[in-house]
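Our platform keeps sequence and structure together, in a single record for each protein. Such a record has a labelled line for the sequence and another for the backbone structure tokens. Nothing more is needed to write down the fold, since each code stands for a local backbone conformation. For reference, a complete record is included directly beneath this paragraph:
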Amino acid sequence: MQDLIVELRSQTMGVGCFNWQFDHLQEMPDKLAEKVLTKNSNTNGNGNGHR
């Protein structure tokens, strides 16, 4: 999401806007879920790494 915001600001010179809407949830394969959990196990769940 952070990259999307930077890209939009870059393309619109900071004056653009966008809307987005939730679409659906989908189950992850076990191996991928384990990889995500392992990668993010040292964060607080906010994605910023601060505890």
Helices lie at 2-12, 30-39. The chain is about 40% helix and 0% strand.
